[in-house]
Amino acid sequence: MNLNKTLLACTLALAALNPALAQSAEGHPDWPGPGQLFAGTCYQPVDRSLEQVKRDVALMKQSGFKVVRMGDLSWDYFEPAEGKFDFKHFDAVMNEMQAAGIKVILDIPGLPAPMWLHHKYPGVDIVNQAGTRLAPAERYMDNIGDPDYRRLAIRMADTLTKRYAKHPALLAVGYDNEIGNGFISYSEADRKRFVEWLKKRYDSIEALNKAWATQRWSRRIGTWDEVRLPYADGPGPAERYLDLRRFWSDITIGTLDDLEAVRRKNTPDKPTLSNYWDWSGRKGFDFLGSYRQHTTYGAMGFYAGDPVGGGWEATLIKGGMTTPTWFNEFAAGGGGSYGAKGWSRMWAHFVLLLGGQAAIAWTFNSHLGGEEQALMGLIDHDDRPSWKLGEWARIAGDYAKLEKLGFPRKVEPKVAIAYSFENTAAYSAPGPSNTSRQYLKTPYLKQAHGAFEPLLKDNIDVAIIKLSYEDLSRYRLIILPGMYLLDKASTEAVRKFVADGGTVVMTAQSAKVNDNNQWHNTPLPGGLTDVFGLRTNEFYDWTGTLKLGDEEIKSTIAHVEVLEPSTAEVMARFTNLDGNPPAITVNHFGKGRAIYVATPAQPQIMRPLLRQLYAGLGIEPGPKTPDGVFARVVEGRVLYVNTTWSPVEVPITGAMQGVLGGQRWDGTLRLDALGVELLEPQR
């Protein structure tokens, strides 16, 4: 059995026996819930004198900040030499925050590891796939699978949390900033750890050979000692690459489990608020399949470039959690950090639409040296307050008004989009030997966005979930966009969901490979042909035009699957292809429906299809808004956010009063570029 799944089963079993172990808001009765929003900043006092700290804290208090995030990226600040801890300066910083009434998220700085640790314990160094040992030249060049690293990281976490467990400023604990954004290592010790991982997963060499299809091209493995670490950058077969990614995911989750055990021991009354980066292209990890082990509230760094991408990430980090989301880093200006007044304020309200509770600016002080030295914070390089500080003070003022009016809003989606870490790995297997790349021409994330965008623009709440990890009965509609690898557990979950009365929409390129990243030797979609009432084998690089109802739709992706319905009915046909083959089918299975789309997910096809389904499923779109404007109803009021760079007029019903701007509107709301407003009925 997969070690990570074993750990999860044990965790859930313990939580059932002892509710105090469950990671939920209910496990922390004093934790802020409805009625509290938080605006604040990330703060790194490592090179700030106490006098500077006092001035900084005074500005934070004056700006209305309620929270700071500190400690991240600062291991040698607390432990300048092995076993020698120095907390004098940070004690004073914590006391200043308490005196100002500002709460602290204490981020355990397990990444990056100090130079002294690399020097004394070279197993912490990264070894690249060519076998070259690399010096820790930048952040996150740490081998977190090394036993010495894990031992010392646990000691750091234990020492830090014990010291501040009872400090009145402590609000929450975070783990290893941006964990997931690390490097894969190829040392001999890593290879041996990988072999042990494989033994637990497959039990025998025979099972490993079958899973890796080693009968092809003379790659059969005779003993465990012949196993080598697959190359992340290729070449190499897709099966091995998938297991490489799983292995490092489990190591990352194991690191989080280590730190979570420390939190439960030393600060059981404080929740976790970690800045995750589970989708990092460098390594990543299976957050959606593990968060109940180490997470209370979904949290992340939010650097949105557009509403679909930003909305997707904000929804992904929430998973199936019912708790609000925290944005532990937040772009302090447009384009990442520069210019664009109003940019941060707009996004700070956008995340409220999606169930956000906090926006924390990155960063308070501009960096004078080291990495990110040109990044402009809320305070300029000469310690003069920037215009950005004023904007964030305005955000804090907005939040102070909104928290009395039903925020953070409770999100209870009836629609879910399936997504999985393993599927990202299946799509991205590198190298010329992975001919599936010729088939998977449309990136996985593009397909996921193609399913998400219509729902976002219809102002409908969505959950992004791992199918085998959630209670699917919470949802009425589940979308599977390009789920190329649909493992056995997820396949069975889909089958049960439909049989019990749910509706599923699956798009092309789905359910083609099994748990080992090998194509099914059964009719496709693998394991679900009876659920969808069809089979699909052939595909062509065509751009299809289809007719759905009275609407003619042109696909913009050159991929069409040939559908062979058995019990399925045809909902739409291609009008520009010979024989007008089926483009969309629907099959009744058990009490539910299974809909198959013969093209990859794309907004222009998904939008009209989903709109046909809303009413029958009891899914009600949110307020109608022009393109680029998003809205949600909160306790009878409507929050509008204009994400565009132009003024927009939004039709409204009757006379309404602006809570944030104070202006009365009748029939039409005018939002400035990047403008926001909460409307309530005129009294």
Summing up helix and strand content along with how strands pair, one would put the structural category as alpha/beta
Q: Please count the beta strands (DSSP E, at least 2 residues each).
A: 25
Outline type:
globular
Return the average pLDDT rounded to an integer: 93
Roughly what percent helix?
25-40%
Portion in beta strands: 15-25%
The poorly predicted ranges are: 1-26
Strand order of the largest sheet: 11-10-12-13-20-19-18-15-16
Instruction: Report the CATH architecture of the largest domain.
Output: Alpha-Beta Barrel
Report the major sheet: 9 strands, mixed
Tell me the count of domains.
3
- Continuous helix count: 19
EC number: 3.2.1.23
Protein name: beta-galactosidase
Pfam family, one: Glyco_hydro_42M
InterPro entries: Beta_galactosidase_Trimer, Class_I_gatase-like, GH, Glyco_hydro_42, Glyco_hydro_42_N
Put the structure in a nutshell:
This protein has 683 residues and is an alpha/beta fold.
Structure description:
The chain has 683 residues and is α/β, with parallel strands linked by helices. The model is unreliable at 1-26 (pLDDT under 50).
Topology:
Blueprint: H1 3-17, E1 38-42, H2 50-62, E2 67-70, H3 75-78, H4 88-100, E3 103-108, H5 115-120, E4 126-127, E5 133-134, H6 147-164, E6 170-175, H7 188-202, H8 205-211, H9 238-266, H10 291-294, E7 299-302, H11 307-316, E8 325-331, H12 343-353, E9 356-362, H13 387-402, E10 415-418, H14 421-428, H15 436-439, H16 444-457, E11 462-465, E12 477-480, H17 488-499, E13 503-507, H18 529-532, E14 534-540, E15 545-548, E16 551-554, E17 560-565, E18 569-574, E19 582-589, E20 592-597, H19 603-617, E21 629-634, E22 637-642, E23 648-658, E24 664-671, E25 676-681
Parallel strand pairs: 1-2, 1-9, 2-3, 3-6, 7-8, 8-9, 10-11, 10-12, 12-13, 13-20
Antiparallel strand pairs: 4-5, 14-17, 15-16, 15-18, 18-19, 19-20, 21-22, 22-25, 23-24, 23-25
Helix pairs in contact: 2-4, 6-9, 11-16, 12-13, 16-19
